[in-house]
Amino acid sequence: MLRLLRALAALDVLAETGPGRFGLAPVGALLRSDQAGSMYPLARMLTDPTMAHAWHNLDFSLRTGDPAFDEAFGIDFFGYLSSRPELSQMYNSAMSHGTRGVARVLAGAYDFGRFRTVVDVGGGNGTSLAEILTAHPGPRGVVYDTPSGAAVTEQTLHAAGLAARCRVETGDFFTEVPRNGDLYLLKSVIHGWDDEHAAMILRNCAASAAEHGRILLVEHLLPDTVPAGGSPTTYLSDLNLLVNGQGQERTRDDFAGLCARAGLRIADIGPLPSTGFHWIEICPD
Predict the structure, then answer these.
(1) What pLDDT digit, counting tens, does each position of 212-250 carry?
(2) 212 part of the active site
(3) Domain assignment present for 38
(4) Among 53, 97, 158, 191, which one carries the catalytic annotation?
(5) For the chain, where are the E strands, in sequence order?
(6) Rounded distance, CA 109 to CA 111, Å?
């Protein structure tokens, strides 16, 4: 045990306060479930045996470009989640914790007040939209997700005092999305899909939008070349999407090409400081 504790101290997860005595370092404190900004749900999800198992087949993904998860389990990741409620709940919790901090920055960095209705496509438990509507009292909202993804959304909205301004709808965004929205928000949705499926989602949003409607992506934006000394987080996320999903992280040119495929264009892009994310506003071409 001492050898493990020392290794964790060397990784700045723990701090050795005296010979053989250890306490949590700031990084380690984020693994507590009761800590503000806790990364506990995300850490549990990423280290779950199901997620880790697909990495054993990394060579399959590198050789074929296909998800190792599908090869290992005979089903895609989201199909696997839908039949395992406990794992699905863990995934939803991890996504919610990863979203809250980004949503707070987004709410202050982008002018949502100019829209009447914001539709959060793939919005999960409503964390993003709750932050946005709290900061901007004018718009009304719709959270749209699968029945399992939106299982606790109404609780989130009620706790935020937004039940009267926001409703929940369920369905399949490959088939349709709620109609007549002025802004369709997709936070960390498009990166989960290949170009064909991602373009389908964008086309459905554009077809359902009100006149002069917009689409807003919140995604990591890869630089054109790997910067020296930069954070590896987005590149590791890209590998995880290769292994466990069918998506990818994208450069600005990649997003521009994806939009063109859907008959759309990028109107503007802005950073979300201290989050690693950018917002990307899309409009009809």
Answers:
(1) 999 999 999 999 999 998 889 899 999 999 999 889 999
(2) no
(3) no
(4) 191
(5) 14-18, 21-24, 117-121, 140-145, 166-170, 183-187, 214-219, 221-222, 250-251, 264-272, 277-284
(6) 7
Dihedral sign, Cα of residue 207, residue 208, residue 211, residue 213? negative
- Structural domains in the chain (count): 2
Is 148 part of any domain? Answer: yes
Q: Provide the token pair at 264.
A: 């759309």
Residue 41 domain-assigned (yes or no): no
- d(C-alpha 144, C-alpha 129), whole Å: 11
Same domain, yes or no, for 26 and 138? no
Q: Which residue's entry shows tokens 């999800």?
A: 45
CA 78 to chain centre: 14
End-to-end CA distance of the chain: 60
CATH of the domain at 177: 3.40.50.150
Contact 184, 212 (CB under 8 A): no
Angle at which helix 252-261 crosses helix 195-208, to 10 degrees, equals 60
Structural domain range at position 24: 1-30
Asked whether residue 4 falls in the same domain as residue 105, the answer is no
Instruction: For residues 17 and 118, state if they share a domain.
Output: no
Residue 213 one-letter amino acid: G
Beta-carbon-side half-sphere exposure of residue 6 (alpha carbons within 13 Å): 5
pLDDT tens sequence across 162-185: 999 999 999 999 999 999 999 999
Residue 54, domain member (yes or no): no
CA-to-CA separations, 136 to 104, 118, 160, in angstroms, rounded: 11, 11, 13
CA distances to 106, 142, 203 from 181, rounded to whole Å, are: 19, 9, 14
